[in-house]
Amino acid sequence: MSLNRKKNFMKRLGPLLIRKYYTNFFEKARTLAWHDLSKQTPEILEGYKKPMRAHNWDRALWEFALAYETLDLQEELGGIDVPVLVLTGDDDRIVPPEASEKIADEISHAELVVIANAGHLPHEETPEEFLEVANNFLEEVL
């Protein structure tokens, strides 16, 4: 099978797989993304499910995954010459805090903040702490 034919096949197969396994994926992702699952309200969960009712959501998610796979931004980090806030939760199981620390080390003007008792989504799980950190950072750089 030619490379072009394989790519076209995967473009069709990918969305079908995403649709089939979405429920399991969603459950796994939501448990990995949060430090404290009790903070997930029905409204928050509904907000995450809402985009999956859009036309061609499965294809969009598949295309995003394919595009993400080809990005190699590590080389570009050293060229960033503006203040950057790298913010993570201490219990981030999607992008571990060590990875965020490595990213912050690569950027010359980066500040790393690790929020305690938060997972991958500190802006949702600990909004007060997140806003305090973000506001302080913006006050310093603006």
Give a verbal description of the structure.
61% of the residues lie in helices and 8% in strands. It contains 7 helices and 2 strands; from the N terminus they run ααααβαβαα. α1 packs across α3. The N and C termini lie far apart (55 Å).
What kind of sheet is the major sheet?
Answer: 2 strands, parallel
- The topology string of helices and strands comes to HHHHEHEHH
How would you state the average pLDDT, rounded? 89
Rg on CA atoms, Å: 18 Å
Helix/sheet category? mainly alpha
Instruction: Give, in spatial order, the strands making up the sheet with the most strands.
Output: 1-2
Question: How much helix is in the residues?
Answer: 55-70%
Report the span from N to C terminus.
55 Å
Number of structural domains: 2
Find the count of extended strands (DSSP E, 2+ residues).
Answer: 2
* Quaternary structure: single chain
Low-confidence stretches: none
Question: Helix count, per DSSP?
Answer: 7
Strand residue percentage: 5-15%
Q: Which descriptor suits the 3D outline?
A: globular
